[in-house]
Amino acid sequence: MPKIYSVLILFLFAAFTLQAQKLPAKNGEPVIINRDTLFKFYAPQGLFDPKERAGIVTKRIEALMSRIDFNPDSLTLKNDTSISIITYNGQMIMGVNNTDASYSELNRPQLAASYLSVLKNKLGNVFESNSPKQLITNVLEAVAVIILLIVLIWIVNKGFRWIKLKIIQGWENRVKKLAEKGAPIAYASRLLPFISGLVNIARLFIILLLVYLALPVLFYIFPSSQSIATQLIGFVVDPLKSILLAIVHFIPNLLTITVIYLVTRYIVKLVKFIATEIANGAITLKGFYPEWAIPTYNIVRVLMYAFMFVVIFPYLPGSQSKVFQGVTVFIGVLFSLGSSSAISNMVSGIVLTYMRPFKIGDRIKVGEIMGDVIEKNLLVTRVRTIKNEDVTVPNASILSGATVNYTSSSKTLGLILNTSVTIGYDAPWETIHNLLISAAEATDGILANPKPFVLQTALNDFNVSYQINAYTDQPGKMAVIYSRLYQNIQDKFNEAGMEIMSPHFTAIRDGSHIQIPENYVADGYKKPGYKIEREE
């Protein structure tokens, strides 16, 4: 039996020794008072592990702080051969053993003395902060901060009221001057409420900023809420710090982007200079027309800047983030789905540029639309009709149909204007030719050389179709020239005493008066009677 007791005692001693030699917590177990870490335990003591030990010491310190008669100077340290004990008026607060000292650079008495110094300083500060005198001081400081905040808000309101008054007075004076000069003032009057709204928004922003800056000061006055003040300041300081760090880190990329942009810009300027010289005729390239120069420059400029954006894209801040990439892909898909017709018109505009079917100022006809080209770009062509109607035609519609250009050859070959009349078979064709040619030659805007000519285009049942063709170099006055030509044809035929019966000329005229104005009827003209034949 004595042997069994001896083995049992040895087993309990070994278990106690192993418990005492446990490895410390990786980061230590802190003793936290009022959100402030006083120190950490890394080693166990007796039957308590570091976590349990830290909890017991924390409860003892909190109980100590709740005493009204607490005096930090009453904390004492007693060093024995194996342990150092910190007490308060004979009550044990905590102990420090040799194992604790083995995890620091101090020996046990020195480590215990440092713990005692921490307790006196920290608990003394807490006691002073919770004293009635300090509490009254803190409240008065908070009231002073609130009063200062109210005064600042009053000054801001007063200042912005003065600014708004000056703006209104200056605006009214300006409106009066504009009205005296006859300028419309309705638009200026509508802008005043908008400007006043901007001033109010600025005032509200400054007031909110003052309130936000005052809150950390108020929270910092009271020790128990100082952590909240730190968080509030962090909400402003941390983003600003992040922004400043991002700007500093972005400087190398910014320099790279700047170099790429400057190189691209000066290349575009060089292309513009060459294109301008070609358009002005200073530089000539075989097979390259001057009117191609500016459109080609615009295409090259777009391609150069698009290439520049592709090159600098990886250097942009946030370009590697999934959100940024997702947004760019989404925008690209929307652009692709919603711009199919626009891209079709752009491609058609490029093709039309190099096809050269017309240029600005030409008189053209596209479908049922006829007029002068006043604008031509990559998407649309604008045509102004003779009635001053501005018609916008998509380039894709022009490319898919036929376009008539009345101006392109009018200065060299001459534009042929033509119209037809139908005359009966009883009139000699030589006479009709002469009358039509003389009418054309008498028309303003018709060229004398090449000479007008007549074509007989049809032998109809009741008449012959004669077509007068005349040259002009003024396609922009086509409607006026046609009108004058029609007038002259009427006059020439009336002077010759010949009728123009369109579309049919009736051969039998029994009892009918000649179909020309009375002032052109020959003297002594008699209306023919009815011809009646009797069969015997």
Q: Determine the number of helices (DSSP H or I, runs of at least 4 residues).
A: 13
Strand order of the largest sheet: 9-8-7-6-10
Could you give the order of the helices and strands?
Answer: HEEHEEEHHHHHHHHEEEEHEEHEEH
What overall form do the CA principal axes indicate? elongated
Identify low-pLDDT runs: 7-25
Largest sheet: 5 strands, antiparallel
Instruction: Give me the count of strands.
Output: 13
Structural class: alpha+beta
Compute the number of structural domains.
5
Give Rg in angstroms: 52 Å
Terminal CA distance? 182 Å
- Indicate the mean pLDDT: 81
Summarize the structure.
The chain has helices at 2-20, 50-65, 98-102, 108-129, 132-180, 186-221, 226-280, 293-312, 322-338, 340-355, 395-400, 429-441, 478-495; strands spanning 29-33, 36-41, 75-79, 83-88, 91-97, 363-366, 369-376, 380-385, 390-394, 403-405, 415-423, 453-459, 464-472.
What are the key terms here?
536 residues; alpha+beta; five-stranded antiparallel sheet; three-stranded antiparallel sheet; 13 helices; elongated; signal; LSM_dom_sf; cell membrane; mechanosensitive monoatomic ion channel activity; membrane
Explained architecture:
- This protein is an alpha+beta fold and 536 residues long.
- It has helices at residues 2-20, 50-65, 98-102, 108-129, 132-180, 186-221, 226-280, 293-312, 322-338, 340-355, 395-400, 429-441, 478-495, and strands at residues 29-33, 36-41, 75-79, 83-88, 91-97, 363-366, 369-376, 380-385, 390-394, 403-405, 415-423, 453-459, 464-472.
- It has a five-stranded antiparallel beta sheet. The chain has a three-stranded antiparallel beta sheet with strand order 3-4-5.
